[in-house]
Amino acid sequence: MGSEINRRDALKRAMAIGLLAVPATSLLSACASSDGGDSTKKPSSQGTKSADNPLGVNKGTALEAFVFKGGFGDDYIKSAEADYNAKYGITIKHTGTQAIGPKLQPRFASSTPPDFMDNSGADSLDTAALAKTGKLQDLTPLLDAPTIDDPSKKVRDVLIAGTVEQGQFGTKEMYAFNYAFTVYGTFYSNKLFKEKGWTYPQTFSDMLALCKKIKAAGIAPFTYPGKYPYYVHFDLLHQIGKVGGKEALNAIDNLDDGAFKTDAVKEVVTYYEELAGQGYFLQGSEGMTHIQMQTAWTQGRAAMVADGSWVENEAAPTMPKDFDLAVGSLIGSGPGDKLPFGALYAAAGEPFIVAKDGKNPTGGMELLRIMLSKKQTTNFTNAIKSLTCVQGAADGMTLTPGLTSANAALKAAGSNVLNSRLQDWYKKLNNETLGNLTLDLLSGKIKAAEWMDKAQKASDDTKKDSSVPKFKHL
Predict the structure, then answer these.
(1) Distances (CA, A) of 226 to 231, 360, 430
(2) pTM
(3) Distance CA 32, CA 54 (A)
(4) What is the pLDDT of residues 311-323, one digit of tens each?
(5) SS3 for 154?
(6) Which terminal CB of the chain, N or C, has fewer other CB atoms within 10 Å?
(7) Average pLDDT value for residue range 226-253
(8) Which residue(s) pair with 118 in the sheet?
């Protein structure tokens, strides 16, 4: 989250423990007095471009990297850094941390940011706000640079569809490079399901029937991380897209009037109300972190969790070797849904950013180019059990059960892939405001109608707030 919620902690993977996300408003105010200025200025670190150095890295120039040390760890970055160090004659200053926001917000405000950052986790910086205030390097030069393995191809030509768009914020410029390709959904133990004779369902009604059987077997059907309840949105928001179509999901992202008051929203949120009403969530989930949720699940106290494909790596310390991890596609109301069963939430995640005011933004982009090499993508997939954003990078590799399941689900989805941008366009709205509403829904404190009313008001309030940057699907 990997990384969570862009991967994860979303996402795409939100994973720092016990810390609040940095609000966009505070970041904007902190940055207001130190705007990046002319985006076309040539960085002082710029060197001479060549076939072997297409971005023009100035050899010997220092480079500082801050990396989110969550579910993916940071060893895979160190591997790429070693290649950079050997080529450009330096030793990158590397910091691995889960406190990206608290440590870097003051540095952005003072125009002394590190060059290269893995901006992931629950406590990440607000990328949208940084982009809007001119703090980030436009990564288009990287997209147009040749790849390391095949100089006849540009970087943009080898990326999985949607990767570039995931790093855009309402304009053609790309400010975040999402390295991992994450499949999200309902994860479960295929071994457990086979032993019990359970079949992963396709509809809400069938899931409720399965939950009754699971509960009767002495297992909670679901658990969730109440400390980070937006994990549930990995399923909930995209189930709205399955039922109501991509237009229903885009309307929510766009803060459209009445976007949370549609029939599709009502069907999905009513389903969660019924799950709560029937006691299908593990008792105590409201107080759990994502790690505690995963541990309860891998220990067999709960059958299913909403998560991202990074979970295979993140939960490895407690996951039995014969767990046989699998992911289920989005479920919905049935044949009347706008998208068929098999529709999936999948997106490039684990966002990397380069500071425009850093000492070596060119070097930051070059480090990303190195990470896209076959050597480094293979290392990442082998070590982290996650796909990367590079087309065919995992071809010919022996994949783990979870990654095999995720890869199969992605292929089965075809063009029916959904990706809400709410979590990175309006982080506070998704993670905190809607997250707290979802927590109240799952713990039975509110009903679906109240969730919808308050979600719509929160969306409207965000829309009216002039201090919050606004975005639209292109």
Answers:
(1) 9, 40, 14
(2) 0.77
(3) 34
(4) 998 999 999 999 9
(5) strand
(6) C
(7) 97
(8) 67, 352
